[in-house]
Amino acid sequence: MTAPHAIARTALPFPLAARGKVRDVYAVGADRLLVVATDRISAFDVVMAEPIPYKGEVLTQATAWWLERLRELGADHLISVDPDRIVEEVPALAATRAVWARRSMLVRRTVPFPVECVVRGYLAGSAWKEYRQTGTLAGEPLPPGLGESARLEPPIFSPATKAATGHDENITFEQLARIVGADVAEELRRRSLALYERARELAEPAGIIIADTKFEFGRLPDGRILLIDEVLTPDSSRFWPRETYAPGGPQPSLDKQPVRDYLEALSARGAWNKEPPPPPLPAEVVAATSARYRDLFRRLTGVELEAYGAPDGATEEA
After folding, report:
1. Same domain flag for 201 and 240
2. Entry pTM
């Protein structure tokens, strides 16, 4: 394998539409965006100083892999992840290709709904914390006697507000309907549950449990609602190895667990309070986390990241 090429921040010759914890988003036309997944990593809502080699590439290529298989359930915003196609569409990107290639999606621009459409198939994370305290999830009662990491049947649609900083907040379906309208809320719930169910089927042969995930949607000027942003990546989902699944406690995850474990150990010793600035990550933690992302990609797709060439995204006229 060649030496890792890690990108922590980009500066492309286009207007910056947004810069999040991981993604730099550029306006490359009146109705198009280039979504660049950097190698930045966050934990406990704090962005670390050290990038994780190959992470952005995994997020982009995994999203393209999923979208190819989920498009029958509804339209999405992806035009292409192929660098040649992207340069054809936006020639001014050719000079900076080394920065954004394989980590970028050319997408249709939408007006995003200000909510995250979370689907939970297992009781973990903030859902477990709320259930343990009140027996509810987003204010809705759940059956009594469930343990941590218990499978939820059927899966539960659990929307959340999108926080610019800090933690997202779980909301009820009624609150969602007040934010986006009743008809849109029904469509977001239907599509999110259908996407999760199909993804769970696709992950099963790879021995991967999708404990929960979040989807985002946006609206085109003509009113169509598209699936947007990253989809079923290790940053937007909780992936567990099926071979070690044991309900009744927390599960090992197939993502940035090495970073979390290191930071939790620091916190337990009083060496970090989970607030900025972040502590430096040791090289071995960075390397282990990079390997974890690439291993998940290989496990999911059956292909090494370096050998994978994701197909073009759109099946309709871009």
Report:
1. yes
2. 0.93
Q: How far is CA 111 from CA 15, 87, 141, 229, 291, in A?
A: 17, 25, 33, 12, 35
Helix, strand, coil shares, percent, the chain, to 5: 35, 25, 40
141 and 220 in a single domain? The answer is: yes
Task: Tell me, rounded to whole angstroms, the distance of Cα 19 from its chain centroid.
Answer: 15
Q: Is 41 left (phi over 0), alpha (psi -120 to 50) or beta?
A: beta
What is the Cα–Cα distance from 278 to 273, expressed in whole angstroms?
A: 9
- CA separation (Å) from 1 to 66, 95, 254? 25, 25, 22
Question: For strand 111-112 and strand 208-219, is the pairing parallel, antiparallel, or unpaired?
Answer: antiparallel
pLDDT in tens, the chain (318 residues): 334 579 999 999 999 999 999 999 999 999 999 999 999 999 999 999 999 999 999 999 999 999 999 999 999 999 999 999 999 999 999 999 999 999 999 999 999 999 999 999 999 998 999 999 999 987 889 999 999 999 999 999 999 998 665 567 889 999 999 999 999 999 999 999 999 999 999 999 999 999 999 999 999 999 999 999 999 999 999 999 999 999 999 999 998 999 999 999 999 999 999 999 999 999 999 999 999 999 999 999 999 998 887 555 444 433
113 within 8 A of 227, measured Cβ to Cβ: no
Residue 276 lies in a domain: no
127 and 76 part of one domain: no
| Residue 5, domain CATH | 3.30.200.20
Domains of the chain: total: 2
Between the CA of residue 7 and those of 18, 83, 245, what are the distances in Å?
17, 17, 34
Task: Name residues whose C-beta falls within 8 Å of residue 243's C-beta, 6 or more positions apart in sequence.
Answer: 207
Running DSSP on this structure, what letter comes out for residue 76? B
